[in-house]
Amino acid sequence: MSTVAYEIVDVFTDRPFAGNPLAIVYGAEDLATVQMQALAREFNLAETVFVLPPTGGATYRARIFTASAELPFAGHPSVGAAVSLMRRGDLAPGRVVQECGAGLLPLEVTAAGSATLTGGAPHLGDALDPVPLLTALGLTASDHSGLAAPRPAGCGLTWVFLPVRREALAAVRLDAPSLERLGVDGISVFSWSTGSHPAAEAHARVFVPGDVVGEDPATGSAALGLGVWLVGAGLLPGEGTSSYRIHQGHEMKRPSLLDCTVTAAAGQTVSATVTGHVIPIATGHITVPPFVG
């Protein structure tokens, strides 16, 4: 019976058993889509990434799966795969290019075990009514921070961003069917601070209603999208490059840290980056599922 090599790593943390766990499957070029999906269900993590030869113009290709579906892009699999390939000796520290469903995405990998990912094309949607979103999260109108209206935003993967008071984060009680009825398949609930240490930071919880893993302890794609939302809300400058930091996963006892930048011109986001460390946890081999097609 054939097997493939895999690794488990924790992403967006500098210590083990924190951050967001990720399964990386190597040598996946002979696996069919249904086999990849079966392996992702077996790992049962937020995401599993399969490393493949590039089709052109990239260092490697990545296919990313949740336990229930394939994604065009996700942040912690992108950062985790790039750093792990460097540690294996498959690529050198420095600039690499990942090919995925969202296109060709550049990363800068360090020998110290971190990577900076530049997201895809920024997107900012229209303002949404906060009240139905708050209700679906078990919150009230008074929990809304009032900074700006919730809006969808993203850089390769779109999330709804809902600003709340810091105290409201621990009180969230997700009603997944209600969010799904609103057409929301991913939401970042966050508080925002512009204090002096650091200059700008958020505390966030990110939910994926209907997915096997309903809450994510660290979400690189949402971290990128938050920068787009912040520029759109006027909370970060509409010219030049700004830095911000996101704390996530604390309510899940998996503290995570995501360091980000967003670059804007004429009030519009041009690009965003997210940086995180990757900690190796386990390696092994897993049986290839029988092909069903």
Q: What is the compact description of this entry?
A:
The chain is 17% helix and 39% strand.
Layout of helices and strands, plus pairs?
Elements: E1 3-11, E2 20-25, H1 33-43, E3 48-52, E4 60-65, E5 70-71, H2 75-87, E6 94-100, E7 103-109, E8 114-118, E9 123-124, H3 130-136, E10 151-154, E11 158-163, H4 176-181, E12 187-193, E13 201-207, E14 215-216, H5 220-232, E15 240-248, E16 256-265, E17 268-287
Parallel strand pairs: 2-3, 4-6, 11-12, 13-15
Antiparallel strand pairs: 1-2, 1-17, 3-4, 4-5, 6-7, 7-8, 8-17, 9-10, 10-11, 12-13, 13-14, 15-16, 16-17
Q: What is the overall shape?
A: globular
Question: Remind me, CATH topology of the largest domain?
Answer: Diaminopimelate Epimerase, Chain A, domain 1
What is the distance, rounded to the nearest whole angstrom, between the alpha carbons of the first and last residues? Answer: 19 Å
Class of the largest domain, according to the CATH hierarchy?
A: Alpha Beta
Give the CATH superfamily of the largest domain.
Diaminopimelate Epimerase, Chain A, domain 1
The largest sheet has its strands arranged as: 1-2-3-4-6-7-8-17
Q: Give the topology string: H per helix, E per strand.
A: EEHEEEHEEEEHEEHEEEHEEE
- Number of separate strands: 17
Strand content: 35-45%
Domain module count = 2
Largest sheet: 8 strands, mixed, barrel
Structural write-up:
The chain is an alpha+beta fold and 293 residues long. It has helices at 33-43, 75-87, 130-136, 176-181, 220-232; strands spanning 3-11, 20-25, 48-52, 60-65, 70-71, 94-100, 103-109, 114-118, 123-124, 151-154, 158-163, 187-193, 201-207, 215-216, 240-248, 256-265, 268-287. The chain has 2 domains: 3-119 and 278-287, Diaminopimelate Epimerase, Chain A, domain 1 (Roll); 123-273, Diaminopimelate Epimerase, Chain A, domain 1 (Roll), CATH 3.10.310.10. The model has no long low-confidence stretch (mean pLDDT 95).
